């Protein structure tokens, strides 16, 4: 999924002022807070938690997701400002061969603590949301072998400077230079402005429609980029 990104592709910026590096595990908490600030208004994530638990719940959710996605190899990248070293954005690139999670992985991520705090029904909604998005993207991609771009965020005060475009283009360049057998990149988003943003970068819409979680629903777009 992608959070709101108001980046304009034709906005000029000095890319020498920023750089991208792999997230380190001690940076998970900071990254989770950046993601929470961006995703707390996302219509999909708002279905998981009630309003009083939304902020804390999303922080815990992203901490858990970041730990699980980066436990074997680092899949999350951080965009940083050269002068200050401050993190201004992030994205996660999940490879096709992402390993299955073990019971021990969930214990290390303190899943029992999450259930104790927010309840089993919240966990069920979270898993249902994840499964629905994965299923619809898989069906739209028409292939089991693809990279998945997710949790793309630029801090609000840095939007409109071209940083989002810089991050995605760097991601695409990294994949092209790797010369992997897989040539597909997919993503899901719930915001129409993101559809326009990714379209300008060469992504195409391959599916869209309502996704239902029990009695709630939200609109979702699936998009694809062919690496050539």
Mean pLDDT level: 88
- Strand residue content: 15-25%
**What class, by secondary structure content?**
alpha+beta
Output the radius of gyration. Answer: 17 Å
Overall body shape: globular
Q: What is the count of DSSP helices, taking H or I runs of 4+ residues? A: 7
Number of strands: 7
Distance between the termini: 23 Å
Helicity, as a percent range: 25-40%
Largest sheet: 7 strands, mixed
Unreliable residue stretches? 6-14
Question: Order of SSEs, N→C?
Answer: EHHEEHHHEHEHEE
Query: Major sheet: order of its strands?
Result: 1-2-3-4-5-7-6
Describe this structure in words.
With 228 residues, the protein is α+β, with helices and mostly antiparallel strands. Helix content is 39%, strand content 24%. The chain contains seven helices and seven strands. It has helices spanning 28-39, 54-69, 103-108, 111-118, 120-141, 163-178, 192-200, and strands at residues 18-22, 76-81, 87-94, 147-154, 184-189, 204-213, 216-226. It has a seven-stranded mixed sheet, with helices on both faces. The radius of gyration is 17 Å and the shape is globular.
List descriptors.
single chain; 228 residues; alpha+beta; seven-stranded mixed β-sheet; globular
């Amino acid at each position: 999924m992608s959070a709101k990104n108001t980046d304009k592709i034709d906005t000029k910026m000095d890319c020498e002022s920023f750089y991208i590096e792999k997230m380190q595990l001690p940076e998970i908490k900071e990254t989770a807070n950046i993601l929470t600030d961006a995703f707390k208004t996302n219509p999909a994530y708002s279905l998981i938690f009630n309003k009083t638990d939304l902020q804390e719940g999303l922080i815990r959710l992203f901490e858990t997701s970041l730990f699980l996605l980066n436990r074997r190899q680092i899949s999350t990248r951080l965009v940083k400002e050269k002068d200050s070293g401050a993190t201004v954005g992030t994205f996660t690139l999940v490879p096709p061969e992402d390993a299955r999670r073990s019971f021990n992985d969930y214990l290390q991520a303190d899943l029992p603590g999450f259930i104790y705090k927010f309840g089993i029904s919240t966990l069920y909604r979270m898993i249902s949301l994840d499964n629905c998005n994965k299923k619809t993207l898989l069906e739209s991609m028409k292939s089991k072998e693809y990279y998945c771009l997710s949790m793309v965020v630029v801090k609000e005060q840095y939007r409109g400077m071209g940083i989002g475009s810089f991050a995605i283009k760097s991601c695409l360049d990294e994949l092209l230079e790797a010369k992997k057998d897989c040539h597909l990149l997919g993503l899901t988003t719930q915001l129409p402005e993101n559809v326009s943003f990714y379209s300008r970068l060469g992504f195409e819409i391959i599916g869209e429609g309502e996704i239902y979680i029990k009695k709630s629903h939200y609109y979702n777009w699936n998009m694809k980029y062919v690496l050539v």
